[in-house]
Amino acid sequence: MTVWDDLVGQEEAVAVLRRAAALGSGALAHAWLFTGPPGSGRSTAARAFAAALLCDTGTGCGTCHACRTAVQGTHADLRVVATELLTLRIDAVRELVQAAQRRPSTGRWRIVLVEDADRMLERTTNVLLKAVEEPPERTVWLLCAPSPEDVLPTIRSRARPVRLRVPPVAAVADLLVRRDGVDPAMAAFAARAAQSHVGLARRLARDEGARTRRREVVRTPLDLSGPTDAVVRAGELVDVASEEASSSTAERDARERAELLRTLGVEPGRAVPPALRSQVRALEEDQKKRATRLRRDVLDRALLDLLSVYRDVLVLQLGADVDLVNASMVEDLRALASRGGPAATLGRMDAIGTARERIQANVNPLLAVEAMCVALLPEPVGAA
Prior knowledge:
By secondary structure, the chain is an alpha/beta fold. The chain contains 15 helices and 5 strands. Helix content is 57%, strand content 7%.
């Protein structure tokens, strides 16, 4: 099993990366930009490439110590940076720039992998620019972002692009069966429902709660008959996202706080001395930002699931010969398709897209989702 095996449906990108890994130090580009839609495997591709560059055989064999530690992100010559906050901190990038100046300790290369390059503010990117323009001879920068437009042109122009695509549903299902031992029927359902997002497909296949939450989201259009329903349903969608985010972070937040207090020498149950409170406040601020990002991500995923319903409705209205994402609710989809034409469906899809943009722009999520749900209401009987 090689480091490339988990990168499904990306044969062209893998071929490019394999050839590059075999090049000598003088021929290899020193900055790479991995782009692709969510779930396409940007981070997986970047880690696999890093492993191949550090591999004892130079191929990404997947069995040597260098490959295993690189894929896990623990290799001494690989620095992996990702953020759970809304943006990547400028201090973290300054540390990366300093680390990139060091010579490799055990491998052929020193590799710096930034998984959230799109979350850098302009002033943060400017700190990175000099290091990407003139890296040391044996340093390689790997940057990941949803699209080339998500990073500044000054960075984009200096990095070799690696564009990933949405993998086929069948390839994602095969990966779940082969790697995770998922039942083939469940794997096929999860891959289709996740719209080929590998991580979400794995979660849907293994977590009954995730499947239940998704089932409730995709039935939203069936529950809307008037403005009151729209307001109530909007509140439910936002509440579910908040609860899921809170449940995912509460235990971790408590553990981090306890570890910090122990490091500072504060005994359990004792008040934090005034001189140490700034450090506790800094931790709490980071945790708050992390929760905000997670809440947005969970809600955005719900809106994408909702968007898949109207995508299926449009497929039925146009008679297109493509598979439905929500094939298990085909009768409900036909009922929705009969309520209007393609133009109305496209309008509802635009309303969902607008809600996603507003939430990312820091509009109050409840207000954004309420406006969306009102726009999803069925047209009055007799309306043109």
